[in-house]
Amino acid sequence: MIQEDRLLNEFLELVRIGSPSKKEGKISRLVAQKLKKLGAKVFFSTEGRSTFSGDEASKIAGSDGSNIVAKIYGNPDLPPLMLNAHLDTVGTDEVITPIVDNGVVRSDGTTILGADDKSGVAIILEVLKVLIEQNLSHPPIDVVFTISEEIGLLGVKNLDFSILDAKYGYSLDTEEISVITTAAPSCTKLFVKIYGVESHAGASPEHGISAIEVASQSISRMRLGKIDEETTANIGKIKGGTATNIVPGYTEVEGEVRSHSDDKLESQTKHMIQCFKDAVNKSGKVVDGNPIFARVEEEISHEFKRFYIPADAPVVQKVISAGKRIGLDIYIHKGGGGSDANVFNEHGIPTVVLGTGMQKVHTKDEFIKVSDLVLGAKLLLEILICES
Fold first, then answer.
1. pTM of the full predicted structure?
2. What is the 3-state secondary structure (H, E, C) of the chain?
3. Which residue numbers are catalytic?
4. Percent of the chain scoring above 70 in pLDDT
């Protein structure tokens, strides 16, 4: 029932439209028009702003596009569900040239492809077309396409949830189609400012305190990488100093902690902050009879909250059942990344993450097999048909 050529052409059309985070205006307008042609009630305006009150995503993300919510009416006796994908792509590429070669879609090698997450958008649109064209029975559907997912889930975090009726959902935003992600970690980000004391690096280095050195000593004492089976930690950015002949008086450090355990998340975060404080306390020296120290300021932000959905939950079992019906074994996976699904779960909509077949995402080597794109659509269609 899935039309391969139509699905592929839809996907190619979408990836040709550059939509890095904050520049989703063109693609959000196009997708809104496509949904309207399907007869959906679409909460979106031609000016690139949502028409439902309380949705501040465009303003907060600084985007020229908008979240889109569309209502596809179905069997009112069935609980409504939600289908989700994000419209933005990672990085800054705006001109993408897809190439289809021997059943595989890639970029021309100079940019990402954008299968993350336009493969998800294309699959959802194709499945909706099949449902409507063939008059197949299905539950009422909330379609939610978000903006600025790649820069902190800003679209879904600022979505007007009051308009959603869905009792559970599926987010199409991972790789393997045979794998369903039923758990994801919480994430805390650290932004640390270290203030040292500047001095001439050649004439009087002993009069200064290097903020970079303090940062280095802090990081060298940290537990980083894979802490245990549930927790990871990383220092991702360091910026500081003004010239090689000046003992640096300021350094910024950014990092993150992820964990499936809130207690471990808190413990690891405290450990990393304490490493900075310990290094600052040890930085003291006396210059011209006066004690001087470095100092530290930290900002901690909670990026997204963990979720866990048990294997026997209906939202999971429906996928496993649908997979069996099309000859696909489904495996349950505990993820390490964050996605829109984290926020949907936080708002009480049990949501698992389905694969689309995209591979090597966030790189210029990104690709997707046409056969996987089709298989992802077949699985999603079967899930919805199982609901009827």
1. 0.92
2. CCCHHHHHHHHHHHHCCCCECCCCHHHHHHHHHHHHHCCCEEECCCCCCCCCCCCCHHHHHCCCCCCEEEEECCCCCCCCEEEEEECCECCCCCCCCEEEECCEEEECCCCCCCHHHHHHHHHHHHHHHHHHHCCCCCCCEEEEEECCCCCCCHHHHCCCHHHCCCCEEEEEEECCCCEEEEEECEEEEEEEEEECECEECCCCHHHCECHHHHHHHHHHCCCCEECCCCEEEEEEEEEECCCCCEECCEEEEEEEEEECCHHHHHHHHHHHHHHHHHHHHCCCEEECCEEECCEEEEEEEEEECCEECCCCCHHHHHHHHHHHHCCCCCEEEECCCCCHHHHHHHCCCCEEEEECCEECCCCCCCEEEHHHHHHHHHHHHHHHHHCC
3. 88, 149
4. 97
